[in-house]
């Protein structure tokens, strides 16, 4: 066991185990993200720039700042989240969506019904746009029906990046060629999704641990590569809340290293679940 006053990391700014525990507790309370002691170096390296920017000389002063400022807590959470993502990551989910899930949802939409898909930890938008491209491929007129992809993330900067819909041209390599064409606008070193694609996706900031402001349920939920950062009790609570938003037969896609313990879901394909009870 480490002594609270002992340095967790030796560096420009004193960073004790007490500072680490204060910040780790705050990140877990606010965002659900568990930071074991092995992450002390990561916390130091991600936050020392901020300590400098704020003109502080030690991490204990930074702990004081986050205790009194909700804005700074948001900066802290954004610094501690991992936003790694890419278009069509875990491509088997989009194949499953296209083949096993969308045909029925498209039928519903064509009869005037409502179709909602939630990308619940969307990072900078690659996941929800991959969903929208898959949808448009199967239903080119989706935007003129009651069909929407809700994209949300705890980090407002991520939601803003997704809304801007501008990505480096090199990332086009991750998007199957037949889904590019009219869906992509050339902006030199960048590309932007067309208005049709953008209209299908709505971005907002939502913390999975707090109240969810959306009204109405979802037909499909993507919650990929975020639960790994949460403890088992938090994961179970969120799986249960997802079940409450999905109809029987609704689908849930999770990350490659994640598992669902809830008896309300059955595995129907690789890391793809269906609500059964
Ligand atoms: C590794 S990315 C996953 C992005 C995408 N789902 C994928 O699989 O490529 C994890 C995302 O979860 C978000 N996140 C972390 N804690 C969250 C929380 N409590 N509520 C909502 N989003 C959260 C992070 O901001 C980050 O953008």
Overall spatial form: globular
What portion of the residues fall into strands of 2 or more residues? 15-25%
Tally of distinct domains: 2
Overall average residue pLDDT: 96
The distinct bound ligands, ions and cofactors come out as: S-adenosylmethionine
How many alpha or pi helices?
Answer: 9
Query: At the first level of CATH, what is the class of the largest domain?
Result: Alpha Beta
CATH architecture of the largest domain: 3-Layer(aba) Sandwich
Number of strands: 12
Query: What is Rg?
Result: 21 Å
The helix/strand series, from N terminus to C terminus, equals EEHHHHHEHEHEEEHEEHEEE
Fraction of residues in helix: 40-55%
Give me the secondary-structure category.
Answer: alpha/beta
Low-confidence parts: none
**What's the oligomerization state?**
single chain
Largest sheet: 7 strands, mixed
CATH topology of the largest domain: Rossmann fold
What strand line-up does the widest sheet have?
Answer: 8-4-3-9-10-12-11
Distance between the termini: 44 Å
Descriptive overview:
It is a single chain. The protein is an alpha/beta fold and 277 residues long. It folds into two domains: 7-80, Orthogonal Bundle (Chemotaxis Receptor Methyltransferase Cher, domain 1); 92-275, Vaccinia Virus protein VP39 (Rossmann fold), CATH 3.40.50.150. Helices cover 40% and strands 18% of the residues. The chain has nine helices and twelve strands. The chain has helices at residues 17-31, 40-53, 59-68, 70-80, 92-110, 126-138, 156-164, 195-200, 232-245; strands at 7-9, 15-16, 115-119, 147-153, 166-168, 184-187, 190-193, 201-205, 220-223, 251-254, 265-269, 272-275. The strands form three sheets. A seven-stranded mixed beta sheet has the order 8-4-3-9-10-12-11. A three-stranded antiparallel beta sheet has the order 5-7-6. The chain has a two-stranded antiparallel ribbon with strand order 1-2. Helix 1 runs parallel beside helix 3, helix 1 crosses helix 4 (70-80) and helix 3 (59-68) packs across helix 4 (70-80). The chain is globular, with a radius of gyration of 21 Å. Bound molecules: S-adenosylmethionine.
């Amino acid at each position: 066991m480490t002594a609270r006053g002992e340095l967790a990391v030796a560096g420009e700014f004193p960073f004790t185990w007490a500072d680490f525990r204060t910040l780790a507790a705050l990140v877990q309370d606010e965002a659900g993200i568990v930071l074991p002691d092995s992450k002390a170096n990561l916390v130091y390296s991600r936050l020392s720039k901020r300590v400098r920017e704020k003109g502080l000389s030690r991490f204990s002063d930074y702990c004081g700042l986050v205790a009194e400022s909700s804005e700074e807590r948001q900066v802290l959470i954004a610094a501690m989240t991992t936003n790694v993502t890419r278009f069509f990551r875990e491509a088997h989910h989009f194949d499953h969506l296209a083949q096993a899930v969308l045909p029925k949802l498209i039928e519903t939409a064509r009869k005037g019904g409502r179709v909602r898909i939630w990308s619940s930890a969307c990072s900078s938008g690659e996941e929800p746009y991959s969903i929208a491209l898959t949808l448009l491929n199967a239903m080119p007129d989706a935007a003129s029906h009651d069909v929407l992809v809700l994209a949300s993330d705890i980090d407002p900067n991520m939601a803003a990046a997704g809304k801007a819909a501008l990505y480096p041209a090199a990332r086009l390599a991750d998007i199957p060629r037949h889904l590019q064409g009219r869906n992509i606008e050339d902006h030199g070193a960048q590309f932007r999704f067309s208005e049709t694609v953008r209209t299908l996706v709505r971005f907002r900031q939502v913390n999975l641990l707090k109240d969810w402001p959306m009204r109405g349920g979802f037909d499909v939920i993507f919650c990929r590569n975020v639960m790994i950062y949460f403890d088992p009790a938090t994961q179970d609570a969120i799986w249960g809340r997802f079940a409450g938003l999905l109809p029987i037969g609704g689908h849930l896609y999770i990350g490659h290293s994640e598992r669902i313990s809830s008896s309300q879901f059955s595995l129907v394909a690789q890391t793809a679940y269906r609500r059964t009870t």
